[in-house]
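Can anyone check this?
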Amino acid sequence: MLARAFEADPVSGYLFPDAGARRAALQRFFRIQLRRNYLARGEVWVEASLRGAALWMPPRPDPPSAASELAMHLGLLGVFGSRIGTARRLARLLAERHPQVAHYYLGTLGTEPAHQRQGIASALLAPVLARCDADRLPAYLESSRVENIRFYEARGFAVVDDVAVADGPRLWLMWRWPAGGGAGSAGGSAGGSAGRR
């Protein structure tokens, strides 16, 4: 489902320029991300019929074991092939801008293309954003599509910066203070039910 949701995404097209092979590459990529990152160290929220998923990292997650990190790097090398350098440069660029204060990080939010704009993404975000508000913690994400900015703004996020890759896409870095929280800089600083897996 995530591979289908991100097949037309600008970052996916940049990392996997062969459109005919992109979906299979994205399936392998998300399989690695789920197993080695989000199911092991983060949180995965899914819509009841698996039509959407939100992948979150909590504040200061446990670091991966050396064996898990090696397995992930080897797996990603197999996914990206000759594009591994491109993928690493993009990851490094985003890591340099990633806020250092404690926050929830929305790594991925995807909905089955045929079921978008039905409230699934909103329902998937709600539990963790409610926890952010209750625990007085901010949240952060990178949006790879300008048309998604208004969706996130309606849920309390604001664009705090953007990153433009020289030969590739532009990403908008978005920060959300907990409801009723203060404002400042993060830099350095409806339909369907959702369940955690």
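Reply from J.R.: I decoded it. The chain has one domain: 2-196.
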